[in-house]
Structures are given as C-alpha cells and as structure tokens.
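[Meeting: bench + compute handoff]

Bench side (C.D.) handed over the final construct sequence. Compute side (W.E.) agreed to return the predicted structure before the next meeting so the bench team could plan truncations. Sequence as handed over:
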Amino acid sequence: MKKLAKYIIVITTVSAAVMELVDTSIVNVAITDMAGSLGVSIEDMSWVITSYAIANVIIIPLTSFLAEYFGRKNYYLASMIIFTLASYMCGQSTGLVEIIIWRFIQGVGGGALLSTSQAILFDAFSEEERPVASGLFGMGMVLGPTFGPTIGGIIIEHFSWPLIFMINVPIGIIAILLAYTFIDKKDKEGEHKKGMYIDYKGILFLAAGIGCLQYVLERGETEDWFSSNSIRICAALAFAGLTSFIIRELRIEKPAVNLRVLNNRNLIFTTIFTFIVGFGLYTSVFVYPVLAQRVMGFTAYETGLALLAPSLISVILMPVIGKLMSKGVSSVPFVITGFILFSAFTFMTAKISPDAGRWDFFFPFVIRSAGLSMVMLPLINQAVVGLQPKDYSAGIALNNMVRQLGGAFGIAIANNYVAHHYALHRTSLVGNLTPGSPEYTQRIMAITQGLSAHMNIDSSSAAHGALAILNNQVDRQAYYLAYLDTFNLIAIFFALALPLVVFLRTKKKTVNNGGTSKAMLEAH
C-alpha cells in the first residue's frame, strides 16, 4: 500500500503541476478564436495570457509562507479548488474583463500547485530516489508549456474554446480527491500561524508594482506610451511599488520575499539566466502559434501538433541530466549548451519561409526542446550554489518567481514589438506599391480578372475586391516579418546573456549530497 500510495502521489503532483503549466500556454492557439468570439482584438485578448502570468509571479514567492501558515496540505487542496473553480468560470465567461479576472484568480490557485507539488513529490521519495523525482518534475516543467498548444489545438479543431478551461474541471476534481486521500500532513503542519508575521505591506507593494508594470508593457504601444494619462499613472505606481517593495524587503526581519540572498553574486547571475529562459520559453510558445495561424494558415490542431513530437525529446534528456547532476556533474556546461541550442532555434525560426509546412518546424523545435532540457534543472541546482542551507528556500523561490516573471514580461514585450514592427514593415511595403506602376497595375489586373472569372461579379466590384485582397496580402507579409523580428529579438537576448556564464560558480552540488533536493524541499 505504501508503494501504491507513492505512485498515486507521483501521478497526482506531476499531473497538478503539468495542468498548471499547460494553462500558461493552452490559450495561445485559441487566442484568435477567443478574440473573434468575444469581439476584441488579438492584442487585447493577450491579457488573458498575461493576467495568469502576473498572478503566478505574485503568488510563487509567497507559497512558502502561505503553506507554512495554513498547513501545506490545506493550502495545496485550497489552491486546487480555486484553480478548478476559476477554470469553470473562465469557460463560462462572455466578456473580456470577466475572463481576465477569472484567469487572474486561476493563476493565484495555479501558482501554488507548481511549488507545493514539487515539495510533496520530493517528500514521497527517499534520498537515493530523488534524482528520479527531479527528472520527473523537470520533464513537467518543459513539457507543460509545450503541450498546452497541442491540447488547445485539438480542442479548438474539434470543439470550441471554452473547453480548454472546462477540461481542467474533471482533472481538478480527481486530483483534489486523490490529494485529500493519499497526501499526509507533516508534523505540526499549520500550527504555528499565531506566531507568524505577515508582511502585508510587502505583498501589497509587490502586487501593485508587478501589476502596474505589466499594464505599462502591455498597453504602452497601443496608448502611445507616455502621452497617455493611464500609462503615466501606472508607470509611476510601478516605480513606487517596486522601489518600496525592495526597500521594505531589505529592511524588515521577516520579509515576504527574502531579497538579501541576492548579495550572492552567483544567485544574481543565475536569476538573470532564469529570467531569459522564462522569456524565451513563454514568448516562443506565444509567438509561434500566432505566426502559424495568422500568416501560414495552419489550423489550431496543426499548430499544436507541430510542437508535440519534437518536445518528447525532453522525456529522454531530463532524467539523464538529473542522473548526471546527481553524480556531481557541474551545471555550467549544461547551461552553456542549452543557451547555444536555444539561440540556434530562434535564429533558424527567424528564417522560416511564409510557405513553410508543419514539418519544417520539426528540426528547430527539436533543438528548442534539447536546449530547454539542458537549462531547466541545472539552473535550479545553480541557484543554491554558494548559499547557506538556511537560504536555500529563498534562492529557489526567487528562481521560480523570476522564471515566471520573464515569461510575463516576454509576452508583453513581444506584443509591443510585433505591433511596432508590423507598422514599420507595412509602411515600407505600401511604399513599394505605386499606383500606375507596371507591377502594381499588372497585379491588380490579374486579381481583378481572377475574381470576375471565378465569382461572376461586375468589373467595379472585382476591382474593389482586388484592392482588399492586395491589402490583406500586405498585412500578412508585414505580420510575417514582424514575427520573424521577434524571434531574432529572443535570439539576441540569449546570445548577449551567454558571456555572463563566466560569473557562475562551478562548485558541485549534487542531489545526493544535499544540493538540489534539499533546496527544493526547504523552498516550500
């Protein structure tokens, strides 16, 4: 029965964590359908993705405190209930504001699932078996955001977008029942809340600072940046909130997020790498589906399917990497290799043809999966190199927060970058269309004749239709070039960060000697 319970705990915790990670990207392939259904733009609809990421960023660093305050099992169950209920309400939403609010609440519940699942899973394994647990969880961290577009694509192809949220309901109910039955409480769990200090101000400053900064990044391009009152106000609030948060967390004895660990040089540079990994991971699975559907004409199903097979390489690599690190292999070579591979993926994708088929993405995505597998677990391990054992929890929590923060910022920056470069490319393309020139006249005449022949309409209507078709072709080309520019931007971030690897410490920390596994356990 003990062995059965252990495997049920593995299934429950990994499933809960993957479910949370899937929801960071499952909306990506559905964003076009959702925008059309709710009558808003794709750019506005991206708030459904961003609101979830913001909630994750806020709640992840607070997970350790909340689990200790309420008791880990109670907090885990409450988080799953919140996540499941919010998923149902997202599926029932009929307006943009409504679904954004429920997605934020879903992110609050989901943020706890990742970290707490990690700790519960490690508790279920002996010290010798924890490299296996580490590999299992690492696979979930890579595969979760990647499986999202595949699952979303299948649902959009055969059903409708509300099901991408409603599918969480039966899974969530089963996970709640299994967790309630098989996960044991730790000794004296949740019994210390009377003596615990709650840093309400720190939490408030963090939420206000991150939320307002995200609004500025998301809406800045649309509202012409600082010519807008709302942007100016939110920028001031973001600066005040984050500054106040940093000052307060450094001064008080029991902060909500222990920033003092950043006096460790290794952790500073590890968080920079982690931020860029989050940026690349979430931005690539945001930009690719929109490129595939808006420009290349892929269905949602084809879009998701292109990601699926290449991503399975992580199933092979992650356990191998976990085993090698448990034997004392340094994290740094993995980080270097992973960054080189991910840079290669983005440079290759930035050269993809607008007529590319689904299989043309196969090899680039194989490289992407290999690169992410190389950096995920090693960066978690690297976060605790040089820290005192009492600071492991702060280092891991900060690492998890920064990865999600990188993803939230990446999606916001990508949205602005695409909008800006689309306008630049459209202006350039339109400038090359000179009415009266032989090329322009020949193109319009060819489209007009084609419309007249196939649609049996008069010449005047055909001429108007030809102009509309030409306008759509210019739009498609401008978006295509803008999305390729965004992949180049991601590649530049990775390439610029790579030289910073010289600042990472190479002291070996293995799973068996108290490195990664102990850090993960104490982090939650």
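W.E. noted at the follow-up: The two ends are 27 Å apart (CA to CA). C.D. will use this when planning the next construct.
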